[in-house]
Design a protein that fits this description.
Length: 59
Amino acid sequence: MRRLELLRVEHRDLDSAIAVLMESGAGDQMQIARFKKRKLRLRDEIAQLEDGLVPDIIA
C-alpha cells in the first residue's frame, strides 16, 4: 500500500512538472518527453498494483 501511494505522489508531481515546463517554455522537448514516458510507466505500475488489490471474481 505504501508503494502505491508513493507512485501516485510521483505521478502527480510529474504531471505538475510537465505542466510548468510546457507553460514556461523553458523546458526542452527531450526532458518533457522523458517526464511523460516516466509518467506512463508509473501509470502502468499503479494499475498493476491496484489490480492486485482487487480479488478476481469467478463467474
